[in-house]
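Example for tutorial group B:
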């Protein structure tokens, strides 16, 4: 957030749990190589998203993934195993929410497990949720996953890793530069995994070319 809209360049040494943005940018997950790339790479300009007044670079969302992120952030340790644990602990008690979405001046009602605003394609660890998202296309990819049973959610997890989530039942995708999400209750959301308690209405938008980042030449 501090580097967006500035001349400064972001250099990344990936040490996160999923490293979704680093993977999208083709960065090495070895610290020594990543540091060398920061020194010797080239600058790339990418978009920055905003949801509920909070900036994000990779993904933002509401629903099940925000609830999982909330629990994950309170677990000891990091990594994929902890994320699986958080998902299993959350999914069996989670109830899909009802939302009014407005995108490209079209309003529609959705009962959804997950609503994702994607600048990049993946959560991390290769889990692709927005197959066609691009970091520099000036658009957000809106992904809506409809209601399903807990076992249905777990079955769909494999689709995240083999790139077929768009073929799952009741999954809808579209692009927009601005999206409004409304619900009858305050909406819990996350921006790049940081969980925020929002109001009943959230607005998402994109700022094209708002961040410079160092990538391999």
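The residue assignment follows.
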């Amino acid at each position: 957030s501090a580097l967006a809209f500035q001349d400064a360049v972001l250099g990344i040494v990936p040490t996160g749990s999923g490293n979704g943005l680093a993977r999208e940018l083709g960065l090495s997950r070895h610290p020594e190589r990543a540091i060398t790339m920061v020194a010797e790479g080239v600058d790339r300009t990418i978009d920055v998203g905003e949801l509920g007044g909070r900036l994000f670079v990779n993904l933002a969302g509401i629903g099940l993934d925000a609830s999982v992120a909330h629990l994950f952030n309170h677990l000891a340790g990091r990594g994929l195993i902890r994320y699986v644990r958080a998902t299993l602990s959350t999914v069996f008690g989670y109830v899909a929410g009802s939302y009014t979405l407005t995108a490209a001046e079209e309003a529609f009602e959705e009962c959804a497990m997950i609503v994702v605003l994607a600048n990049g394609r993946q959560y991390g660890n290769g889990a692709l949720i927005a197959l066609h998202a691009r970091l520099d296309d000036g658009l957000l990819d809106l992904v809506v996953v409809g209601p399903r049973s807990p076992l249905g959610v777990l079955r769909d997890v494999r689709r995240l890793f083999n790139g077929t989530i768009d073929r799952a039942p009741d999954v809808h995708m579209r692009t927009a530069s601005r999206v409004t999400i409304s619900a009858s209750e305050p909406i819990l959301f996350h921006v790049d995994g940081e969980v925020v308690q929002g109001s009943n209405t959230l607005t998402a938008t994109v700022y094209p070319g708002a961040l410079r980042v160092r990538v391999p030449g």
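The chain has a mean pLDDT of 93. Compare this with the pattern of hydrophobic and polar residues in the output above.
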